[in-house]
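step 4 of 6: structure.
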Amino acid sequence: MLPAKYSPKNVESEIFRFWKDNDVYRKVKEKGGRKFYFVDGPPYTTGRIHLGTAWNKVIKDTILRYKRMMGYTPTDTPGWDMHGLPIEVKVEQELGFRTKRDIESFGIDKFIEKCMNYALANKDAMTEQFKMLGVWMDWERPYMTIKAEYMNAAWFAIKRAYERGLLERKKRVVNWCYRCETALADAEVEYWDEEDPSIYVKFPVKGENNTYIVIWTTTPWTLPANMAVAIHPSLEYAKIRAVKNGEVEYLILAKELADSVLGKGDYDTWEVVETYLGEDLEGLEYEHPLADEVPIQKKWRHQVFFADFVTAENTGCVHIAPGHGVEDYELGAEKGLEVFNPVDDRGIYTEEAGKYAGKHVKEANDEIIDDLYRKDLLLVEGRVVHRYGHCWRCKTPIIYRATEQWFIKITELKDEMIREIDMVQWIPEWAGSARFKEWVSNAKDWCISRQRYWGIPLPIWICEECGKIRVVGSIEEVPWESDLDLHRPKIDAVIFDCECGGKMKRVPDVFDVWFDSGVASWGSIAYPLRKEKFEELWPADFITEGHDQTRGWFYSQLGTSVICFDKAPYKAVLMHGFTLDEQGRKMSKSLGNVVEPEEVVGQIGADGFRLYVLYSAPWEDLRFSWEEARNVNRMLNIVWNAVRFAYTYMNLDNYRFDGEMGELKIEDRWILSRLESFCKEANDAMEGYQIHRVVRAFFEFFVEDFSRWYIQLIRPRVWEERDSPSKIAAYYTMFRVIDRTMRIIAPFAPFISEWFYQHVIKRFRDGKESIFLESYPEPEIELINSELEEAMKVAKDVVEAASNARNKAKRKLRWPLRELVVESENEKVRKAVELLEEIIRYQCNVKNVRVVTSFEKEVVIKPNYKVIGPLLKDKAGKFADYVSNLKEIPEKIEFEGEEIDSREALVVDYKLPEGYEYADFPGGFVYIYKELDDELIREAYARELIRRIQEMRKELDLDVEEFIGTTVEMDPELVEGWEDYIKSETRSEKLIFGKAEGYVKVWDIEGKKVKIGIKRMS
RNA sequence: GGGCCCGUGGCUCAGCCUGGUUAGAGCGCGCGCCUGAUAAGCGCGAGGUCCGGGGUUCGAACCCCCGCGGGCCCA
């Protein structure tokens, strides 16, 4: 016997042990087959997996297992993204560090060691979590971004970029984190709402008294670096005469914005005295508002320029600081402005900032506002809530700073990248054609340098004497012994001799971590250090990641790959969604709505977890719901029960699956057809990576068709004689269904399918060591009989309708009825009912089934009181009289001068011949004859009796085959003629009407007291 | 301001690409039923302006356009 209840825990621990003890994973891998290059997007080694990463790996594992069963040997090297700021920040926190100086004095070597150990420990912890989900990857041999052979892949790429003229060192405004003291890529900036100062500042126009250009800013700290004002050439500007406390001043700003701006200040009156287009203002000079505080500003001329990016917002005049803004910088470059940046790495003003030197920019805001106020250059001061960028790891607000950085000129590669996007199969299609293309076409040059420690060192050496650059493209050009010794500070000690006789030193920067993972498609197979695999496999056949990777890994890989090979590194990309909580919110610690994968697995098992996450469309966000997760578990329980049913009887009969079909009955042919239809659906869906369709089809087939319908139909057949051809057919059919279905669903639910393979499938036929050494079933199309499938649908509908009619007639199913009539004008329906008449008769518990095109019933038209009541009030009664004379529904009703919609006001009922009840179904109507005669009642009583004896047998915990003696205290006439039936159904050797003996219970059958006694015979 | 996605009973979601009976499922709710797969299971019922508005079409949840609401990303 199989365990009565499905216990995921027991199933999983047994299978884990089985796989481990027998080294199954290795055997499956060694089976060999066609190549399939899968690249794992490396999760960052945070130490814990969350629902999203768990979902991600489950999708991957399902695809890999499917591919293996399809005869491929997919690469299944898991990856780990191990460098970067997040780990540095963690280690810094652990050590209580606040700045880079703390790290330097602690020792970079020791710091790096800490980071490495931290990353490695996290990797190990996460590996265990992934294993728990049943993910079969080569955990012993992962690829890691910290390995020399991997770092080599990044060096190779940067060298290629350099050779192609795509690597550039330039001063640019970058996102800067002053806590981490490093540049950040756009992808590393996270936006959320924050409150900042919002100030309107008056810039004095040169040579004119009391005349000002008005600008607006949320970053007062950038004003010391102001170099210009930008306006839009075709926007209308105005000079406003404004009066405050009797004093007059003139303000220049966009005309349409004047009232709203002036209204904020404390002016008494104002009026437009002059208007001009932006272009008339070009070249207008002004004095820097903080020229006294920042003396160096007196060196430069300040004037007004055009810029297209100016919009009619705020004042229409934009403060330009080329050292602190991307657009500012670009405008500055165009107009030849100085890139003035008086802020250092830590966000502290340098000496150049004059009076503000030594202050932190965020602290200087207030002082600058005060100074402006004191000088009467502050029109108004307020606060504003707006979206502002933050360092995505340490959450510090970023600032913009012009610094020297290393860039990849993505802008020159865009066309090629976009062309390559079209060569890739995207699932869903819009992930590539819309979302990713949009991102790439807006991409800017990629800043790849970081002023940090824990990362792949930039392999760029510069001569201190002549400035010559050497980009190293292979680790073989530098001394290295072990896997892990290419990090800082060791690599910093490598010095080359320059042709000029000078010394070449390495640029101290490390790579942006996105560059690390960007080279995964060859780094993971150690190219170019080793070449064979690359030549055989590249590019990847398939990758899958969440939609956040549009700007992440999909992008970084495409960029590096186009640089190195002019080609996309992947052929197919499945983009999946995000996991959210039930309300659709992000899961976060602060909201307290985080659900841990272990928690889910603990409740419903790994198979349950997997099927739950694979149940909905992968590209949609997944709102996690415990309710739904448990529901999947319930369905698995039905699967368990269905298999257990089959097993129980096949086992009892020592069944052997040898291809002998016996005599297949129509329901057998039906479920075998459905099996192949399901199999076809699964195969088709998997080819298009429509994973959820397989899971849905599986439950539909196995729970709905096999368990709820087929097994109900064949229950009597498993009690037939051992060599009965009909029973053999049932066994053959059930076995085939289970065998094939388990193999189809194995990639999705590996534990339960392996368990059934070991305990059920191999019990009745020879097999392989593991289900994963079997091949994935391909549909046998010739067994599909769509007409029969259609017909069975009709039969099911009829049975449902009959059940409905019984409900109305208050006739429970145990009570047999004389007749069931199906009324339909549809030829297909009639044929189906005739074909499956026996099934309908048995399922509906009726003696006779009849099909007619038209049943003798009378149409009765009644008023719909719900509608006409409120409408006609006291006239409703009169209306009812009027309606009672109608023979058919008229199009329109004119009643007492009112026009009434007949569809709303009338309801149709049918008057049936005496004794019938009806219900409708999609093909027509079903009628049952509900009257009982003595013969039916005797049968009904017999069944009532049987049912109770069965329950008593169970209460005594009797074996199914055990014989009993039964004594019943009731009028024997009630079941006359059914004695043998009762005896055989209940395995009673004797049935005596007399004093109840043995295990005795008193029952109430339809109001009659009946005492039943049973006892064991042996 | 831009791009993408989403909006279907109280809840979670299929269906939409490829238009075609009366729009489905599960959960929840109400009423029943069944029972040697059984601390399960099954049926029936109530509950839907398929976000709104226009268009294309003989026909739109589905295709197109314009809105509204939500999410993500970008500015």
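step 5 of 6: annotate
 - Residues 1001 and 1012 of chain A are 5 Å apart (CA to CA).
 - The radius of gyration of chain A is 40 Å.
step 6 of 6: archive
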